Amino acid sequence: MQHKHLLCSLLALSCAVSTAVHANNLAITGPGAAADGSSKASGISYTNIRDGNSQSAWQPTTPSNQRVSVKWSSAVQLNRVVLKELGSAVTSWRLVNNDNGAQLASGTTIGSNKIINFATISSKKLNLEVISASSAPRIAEFEVYLITEGAPEPVEPAPTPTPPPSAGVTSCSALPQGYASLDGGTTGGAGPNAVTVTASTGAQIQAALANRDLNRPLTIRVNGTITPANSGGVSKFDIKDMNNVSIIGVGNTALFDGIGIKVFRANNVILRNLKLRYVNTGDKDAITLEGPASNIWIDHNEIYNSLNVGKDFYDELISGKKDVDKVTISYNYLHDSWKTSLWGNNDSDNFNRRITFHHNYWQRVNSRLPLFRFGQGHIYNNYYTEVQDTGINSRMGAVIRIENNVFENTTNPIVSFYSSALGYWDTRGNEFSNTNWQAMPAEGVIAGPNVQPNAVLNLPYNFTLLPTNQVKAHVIANAGVNKCNF
Fold first, then answer.
1. Which residue is catalytic, options 50, 368, 401, 428?
2. Which H or E run contains 470?
3. Contact at 8 Å (CB) between 358 and 380?
4. Which residue has the higher pLDDT, 457 or 79?
5. All CATH 2.160.20.10 domain ranges in the chain, comma separated
6. Which site in 78, 141, 346, 410 is 20 to 30 Å from 54, CA atoms measured?
7. According to CATH, where is 2.60.120.260 located in the chain?
8. CA-CA distances (angstroms) from residue 137 to 37, 63, 133, 465?
9. What pLDDT shows up at residue 22?
10. Which segment of 94-103, 172-181, 452-461 scores lowest on mean pLDDT?
11. What's the half-sphere exposure (Cβ side, CA atoms, 13 Å) at 472?
């Protein structure tokens, strides 16, 4: 497939395809490969450092001056080691060829994906020496590779200006994180001379949109059940050819039952604290964005369909096409849907869409979490569970940074399937539990089971990253409606 060698060059982005994803991990496949708890390694479960499961780990009983090794019954050739740590306890380490005592590399931190390249050597045993650590470290993977000449090099995630986790995560922020924070941010209907309208029927929502003063920001507060029957004959609510609009639910009262919202040729729009379900009219999406549109924030909503219908009975929960940019989708509870979140309507929908997904709760869904063509995505601190077919599907040269997410009871959580060109991923610190990696189609690639990055996406914004082991509880407690005082 010629598209396996696709090169992408996007603004503020470097991308390289890596064959290391498909190389054999010699720590598992080498001759007589075994983990070795040497005299300096007083921890338990030595085999966990080489088992291909990043969620199990070797952990010594004390934090510093510990060592764990990988060895073979006969010497192997190698030139790359990948180390993966659960957490960030290590503060000093070195990698040593036990055969001759030569130091191959050293550093201060390991993190979730430390890629170490060096000239090809022959060795029967490698030692990872943890010189110091803030607490007993957890080394999840000690992978060993021989990368042959001509293979494209992988790229190690570059540092970005991310505030430390101790800065805290605020789930009820008045302003978005992510791409919607760029170019003046996203404020919706807030601001000087703003107008606020309360609506309990769809007809009142439609009237507020149709009659608005385009020179003043508008907030529509929804207090009631909105249906096609009480919406004055419209099949969807169009936020079209206007800017500076918010539609916000009151408490737990705002239900869009069978009718959705479309944002089209509009900028600076917020949709918040709404419950939307069973949309089979209009575009058949609960929320649709169609460009040109920018600075959109979709936050703290609950959106769902049903899996007890045909796959095409409903369409997406949240989708975007054409020139959509600077979108943040945060703290939503998205569940019970065949088609969930599509970005890019087809393989010709070539726009540089930039979308952030953070702290969303994806449950009992089939696929498209999201399906992402072209552009750049950032998916962090989401909780995925009961994914039936595919999760994140990066296609047509899209590059998605996927970090500190939890995937639990999922099938094929990260893939590139069903397009004429592959997409890429920058994976960091994710957790996989009870994951089923299935065979890929002829025109596709799966990221696992040994998930590694094959691109780098550097971000133009700061954000607060929650440690992976806190994500599930935080997302379940905070995603969805009626969680904040809006």
1. 368
2. helix 468-478
3. yes
4. 457
5. 176-478
6. 78
7. 24-145
8. 15, 6, 7, 20
9. 40
10. 94-103
11. 12
For 202, what's the count of Cα atoms within 13 Å in the CB-facing half-sphere? 22
With contact defined as beta carbons under 8 Å apart, do 202 and 230 qualify? yes
φ and ψ of 180, to 5 deg = -70, -5
In this predicted model, which residue has the larger pLDDT, 250 or 162?
A: 250
Question: What are residue 105's DSSP bridge partners?
Answer: 95
pTM for the complete prediction? 0.69
pLDDT for 117 equals: 83
CB contact at 8 A, 137 and 111: no
Q: In sequence order, what are the residues at sequence separation of 6 or more whose Cβ sits closer than 8 angstroms to the Cβ of residue 366?
A: 307, 311, 337, 338, 339, 340, 387, 388, 389
User: What is the pLDDT at residue 24?
Assistant: 78
Q: Which helix (H) or strand (E) holds 176?
A: none
Task: For residues 270 and 226, give the distance between their C-alpha atoms in angstroms, rounded to a whole number.
Answer: 18
CB atoms within 10 A of CB 449: 12
Query: How much is the pLDDT for 461?
Result: 97
Q: Considering the chain, what percentage of its residues have pLDDT values greater than 70?
A: 87
Q: What is the pLDDT of residues 68-85, one digit of tens each?
A: 888 888 998 888 888 888
Q: Which residue has the higher pLDDT, 118 or 235?
A: 235
> Is domain 24-145 annotated with CATH 2.60.120.260?
yes
80: Cα within 13 Å, side-chain hemisphere = 21
The question of whether 368 is a catalytic residue gets the answer yes
Question: Cα 59 vs. chain centroid, distance in angstroms?
Answer: 28
Instruction: Kindly give, in sequence order, each residue whose CB lies less than 8 Å from that of residue 421, ignoring residues fewer than 6 positions away.
Output: 3, 6, 347, 395, 396, 397
CATH of 176-478, one of 1.10.3430.10, 3.40.50.1000, 3.40.605.10, 2.160.20.10: 2.160.20.10
Q: Is 45 left (phi over 0), alpha (psi -120 to 50) or beta?
A: left
Which of these ranges, 70-74, 148-152, 236-240, has the smallest mean pLDDT? 148-152
- Tell me how far apart the alpha carbons of residues 402 and 381 are, in angstroms, rounded to a whole number: 9
Cα atoms in the 13 Å half-sphere on the side-chain side of 387: 32
Residue 245, φ and ψ in degrees, nearest 5: -130, 140
